[in-house]
Amino acid sequence: MRIIKIIPLLAAMVMSVSSFAQDTVKDFSAKVAGSRVSFSYGYEMKADVLVKGSGTVYVQGEAFRVDVDGLEIICDSKTRWTLDRGAKEIVIESVDGVDLLDNPVLLVTSFDKAFREVSRGSAEVSGKKCLKVDFAPKTESGISALAMFFCKDELVCVQVRMKDGNTTVFDISDMKFAEPAEDGLFSYDADALDNSWVKTDLR
To answer: Is the pTM higher than 0.85?
Structure first.
């Protein structure tokens, strides 16, 4: 489902905003660069049928973990594991492709090459006056535009518009910054799953 590919971009955008280090964005990116960041979010995908959901994200360096609508997406920057515990299915993939939607790590490592800032202005989010920063793509990715909204020094909303006209809006809350740690949160041992699981290894 396309929304599952878009959601890791949210984590990647948070990791990569340092490429545009100026004022509010600079302060935010400095905190992100040296922290383990976690936040909750709700999303709405405005397509032919409105799709809604919610989840949580953990980000550290080029690694991330996304829990969304019963799925877990775990990435250590080289390998991505997608688990559906209800269906007992896991898909394992290498993150070495060229599609930003399939490989959000490219957004992390090459954000300034893939997007350019086009404008800044004020906008209202949940009754609060915020800074809106608009970006346009430099490369083909299926994304036509994206926007980030900052209230004071906090990222509160991200909008992703696709070339097919669909738009996904992420409302971000409860963002926290902690010390980085090596505790296995961003990796997964698929061998530990029993034979009742369907394992698809695409590496």
So the answer is: no
